[in-house]
# Entry
Amino acid sequence: MKAPLLGFDGTSLMKACCGVGGLYNFNTSQMCGLPGVPVCPNPAQRIHWDGIHLTQEAYMHMSQWLLSDLLPKMQLCIVDEYYGEIFCPVHLNVDEWIKGTFYMYGLLRFATLPK
# Structure
């Protein structure tokens, strides 16, 4: 597995950082945030936060992969309507980009590049 190469603890890849009991440190009757439910000392070394959500570190690695590897292969640009920014992981001119097809997702808009 490559998770330890990213800084994750190889001995607890499937265990929640915040939780109690069982093989995965997860129990629906003792969820993260309840009194007495402990948090691991190094959340950045864990993939799973509470048995449902991932840790910030895991989400960061997924985001980096998405932006650096997957988006260029899909030939997508992201338009952030809130900040008014455009992110295109591949080189293109604005005329080509404007002709692309747009997909909305919240405040983000994805544009496919014309072939």
In short: The beta strands are 76-80, 85-87, 101-105, 108-112. Residues 75-115 form one domain.
